[in-house]
C-alpha cells in the first residue's frame, strides 16, 4: 500500500519508471480488461484524479481507498502494481456490483467503468452524445463500432473515431472534460486490426454538434455540412 499521493508520470520520468521488466499492472485470472483500463486512466494523466479523492454523493470510500492507495499511487511511484491489489479491488466490485464473475471472468471495460464510476463513486457521465437529431445520450466512455474497411490496415485513433461517429451519425453535444475511447476488439479469436497507432492529440472539431467550422471551398464560416 502507498498512502502518500503521487502525481502522474510525465516525459522522462514516465519512461524511467514504467519501462522494463516487472512494470505495469500484473495480470491474473482474466484481469487484462481492468489492468489496461486502470493503466490508461491513471498512469500518465490526472484528468480523473477526482475519482481518487472527491467525496461523491454515492462514493464508497473503501473502494476509493483501494483504488488510490493500492493501485494508482504504487503505479506512479514504482511503475508496478501486484495482481493481489487488483484482485482486492475486483472482490470489492463483486460485492458492490452483485456480479460474482468480476473476480475470474473476462469483462468488457465499459462494464467495469460504468460500475465503478456510476454505481460506486456516483460520478456524473463524462460524455453527451446525440444521434441524428434524437434525444441526447449520456455515458462514461465511447466504444468504437465500425464495419471492416479494406483501406484501413494500420489505422490511428483519429481515423477510427471519425469513421465510427460518421457511420453511427453521432455528434458530441459539448466538449468532454475527459474522452475515454474503447478500441474495436472481438476477444481472443478475432481482432479487427492487428495494430492501432495512438493519436497523441485528437481533433474533435468536426465531431461537435452545431460547432462553427470553416467551409472547405471558400474558407468562410460553413452553413451546410456534408458527411
UniProtKB/TrEMBL annotation:
It comes from the Eukaryota. GO terms for molecular function: cysteine-type deubiquitinase activity. Transmembrane segments: none annotated. Signal peptide: none annotated. Coiled coil: none annotated. Keywords: Cytoplasm, Hydrolase. PANTHER family: 40S RIBOSOMAL PROTEIN S3A (PTHR11830). This is CYLD hydrolase.
Amino acid at each position: 500500500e502507498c498512502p502518500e499521493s503521487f502525481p502522474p508520470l510525465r516525459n522522462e520520468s514516465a519512461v524511467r519508471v514504467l519501462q522494463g521488466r516487472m512494470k505495469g499492472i500484473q495480470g491474473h485470472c482474466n484481469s487484462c480488461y481492468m489492468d489496461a483500463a486502470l493503466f490508461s486512466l491513471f498512469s500518465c494523466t490526472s484528468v480523473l484524479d477526482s475519482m481518487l479523492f472527491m467525496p461523491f454523493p454515492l462514493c464508497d470510500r473503501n473502494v476509493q481507498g483501494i483504488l488510490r492507495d493500492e493501485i494508482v499511487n504504487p503505479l506512479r511511484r514504482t511503475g508496478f502494481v501486484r495482481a493481489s491489489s487488483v484482485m482486492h479491488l475486483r472482490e470489492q466490485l463483486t460485492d458492490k456490483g452483485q456480479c460474482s464473475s468480476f473476480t475470474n471472468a473476462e469483462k468488457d471495460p465499459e462494464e467495469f467503468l460504468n460500475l465503478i464510476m456510476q454505481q460506486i463513486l456516483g460520478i456524473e457521465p463524462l460524455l453527451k452524445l446525440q444521434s441524428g437529431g434524437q434525444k441526447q445520450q449520456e455515458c462514461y466512455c465511447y466504444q468504437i463500432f465500425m464495419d471492416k474497411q479494406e483501406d484501413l490496415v494500420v489505422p490511428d485513433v483519429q481515423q477510427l473515431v471519425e469513421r465510427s461517429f460518421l457511420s453511427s451519425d453521432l455528434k458530441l453535444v459539448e466538449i468532454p472534460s475527459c474522452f475515454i475511447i474503447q478500441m474495436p476488439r472481438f476477444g481472443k479469436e478475432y481482432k479487427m486490426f492487428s495494430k492501432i497507432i495512438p493519436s497523441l492529440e485528437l481533433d474533435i472539431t468536426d465531431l461537435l454538434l452545431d460547432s462553427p467550422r470553416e467551409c472547405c471551398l471558400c474558407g468562410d464560416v460553413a452553413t451546410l455540412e456534408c458527411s
